[in-house]
Amino acid sequence: MSTEAQYHHDIALSTRVRLARNVENLFFPNRMSREMAEEAIISLSAPLLRAAGDGFTLMRLDQGNHLEARALVERHLISPELANSQRTRGVVLSVDERLSIMLCEEDHLRIQSFGSGLCLENCLREALRIDDLIGGAVAYAFDEHLGFLTACPTNLGTGLRASVMLHLPALTEAGLMRDIVAAVGKMGLAARGLYGEGSEAYGALYQMSNQITLGQNEEEIIGHVSNVALRVVDRERTLRARIKKSQTYEYEDRVWRAMGILKHARRLPGEEGMRLLSDLRWGVSMGDLDLPLSLLDELLEGIQPGVLTLGAMRPLRAAERDIARANYVRERLQGLH
Amino acid sequence: MSTEAQYHHDIALSTRVRLARNVENLFFPNRMSREMAEEAIISLSAPLLRAAGDGFTLMRLDQGNHLEARALVERHLISPELANSQRTRGVVLSVDERLSIMLCEEDHLRIQSFGSGLCLENCLREALRIDDLIGGAVAYAFDEHLGFLTACPTNLGTGLRASVMLHLPALTEAGLMRDIVAAVGKMGLAARGLYGEGSEAYGALYQMSNQITLGQNEEEIIGHVSNVALRVVDRERTLRARIKKSQTYEYEDRVWRAMGILKHARRLPGEEGMRLLSDLRWGVSMGDLDLPLSLLDELLEGIQPGVLTLGAMRPLRAAERDIARANYVRERLQGLH
């Protein structure tokens, strides 16, 4: 797929592939005793911790490290469920944070592989590599007809969820996201705001992922997700070009004001920060502001409350967080452009 | 008056002293024929145009130069009445624009002297110098009991109006301006927003001037205006210090955001421009941003619609003006701070 090879960084922030796996003859995590979960975490992480190359570390999430867990959620490395559960659980992270294996979440294993831009094939390849690594050490629960067995039937079969994170400021601005979400839904993909509650997508960031895991093989699933994502990417790109041409000053004013405020504000509430970084990313993606896109993607994660709090290494009140957020963004943009 | 010697530039933008004069045995302008007005303009401007030093030029306002007239109003060099009148009229301006003598406005002569900061004594001295210059060439209408005779009885006596332009963002922000206007009124001064209609004072700029011209001599009038202005200046200064101390981040965020937006916006509506320049002037006056205060005062005039239009040398639609305003401010702030 030659178009995917270009990664589409202007619109696609990142890709995630997740595989759900369970161990044969072992209760699903919600029925495990504390001792059984302890044992599963040890035995499932062992093949990873032994393997060379990825620099895996095991992090236990039931040891009072709530701030770390919250930050990992905001950075999309672990699920809110894993962070908030009261059960014994853990996560294995590679040193480059491109691999995250959740242990005793809903399933025994949730193997996640991340990449920048639209890169489903790469992510699948990496996830399958880890799948083989663990699968060589333990026997997975597998049924010839149903495929991999999972705690929730919606994950049966491949246990695969392929997601792409798209930045859609033009479609959002034009009020077209409701239609897009519906259209994508008809094609078997779920689309939801990446940050924010319900239909509010702060920063115009959307995640699109397959809903069907059964009846198709892995390559078919990611091929389909990729095709749908590329159609949305195309619509966003066309609309961006049209807006820039027909509403030049509105567009330029918007992206430059974002730059001005982000470089100067002394207090930055979270929602405003997301909105302004979204505007700035739009301008950068159009080549109109000379900043690295990767910096924008980093800032969009870095301004999240938990990540900021973790950086401060102490609990922050909301007002303190707005100051910390403004300082963080200002320092990162200092001297640029 | 030693405190006035400091000019109080942090809060006082400028000072104006105006003297109303009329020529003996000549109809007031509203009763003059076109020919009589022509003749008066020539004879009253003659002593000025002959005098060396000030570099006076005569500008006729009944010759289709509406754009120029509007810009002069916005820069407070002439009155809206002079600009908008259908009658034969003119203005003599010194090359440094610190002197403006309106001819055939409501009175035959309105001698105006301007200065930066709070400088009533200097302005009075200059206005009286011009008064002497013209008074040496023509006979003024003067009554031993009533003093100088004027078209409107509210100007009888000295014909003096002394005004100071104050920047009062802290008092405005604290919602205290209604009280200030009332208190100042009881002390015989009128206070009104410098720009904007009615009680809306865009940019927190207020003009305060004496209402009584009769029964006091010139020095007494300006002494009183000066005293009242200094009391308002003191209150504003105290409140600014208190806000900076108790709401440090709010204050800093406000002035720095103003800087960020003004340096980056591509469209700048007039009201927003006034508000942001007011915020920025506040920060500069507190020593927190390293810009010359005089630049801010210049920008506050320069962003007015008529001044911008004159600069463009063609009529501008509102949307074009917002772009021109943003460009003008951005260029002036370029490379600063």
Mind explaining what this structure looks like?
Two copies of one chain form a homodimer. Chain A is α+β, with helices and mostly antiparallel strands and 337 residues long. Chain A has helices at 2-5, 34-50, 66-74, 80-84, 120-135, 169-173, 177-186, 218-246, 248-264, 270-285, 293-302, 305-312, 318-333; strands at 12-21, 57-60, 90-93, 99-103, 109-116, 142-143, 147-148, 160-167, 189-193, 205-210. In chain A, a hairpin with a 3-residue loop joins β6 (142-143) and β7. The interface between A and B is medium-sized, with 18 and 18 residues.
Summarize the structure.
Chain A is of the alpha+beta class. Chain A is built from 13 helices and ten strands.
Along the chain, the helix and strand elements of chain A come as HEHEHHEEEHEEEHHEEHHHHHH
| Whole-number mean pLDDT of chain A | 92
End-to-end gap of chain A: 35 Å
Radius of gyration of chain A: 21 Å
Helices, strands, pairings?
The structure is a homodimer of 337-residue chains.
Chain A: H1 2-5, E1 12-21, H2 34-50, E2 57-60, H3 66-74, H4 80-84, E3 90-93, E4 99-103, E5 109-116, H5 120-135, E6 142-143, E7 147-148, E8 160-167, H6 169-173, H7 177-186, E9 189-193, E10 205-210, H8 218-246, H9 248-264, H10 270-285, H11 293-302, H12 305-312, H13 318-333
Antiparallel strand pairs in A: 1-5, 1-8, 2-3, 3-4, 4-5, 6-7, 8-10, 9-10
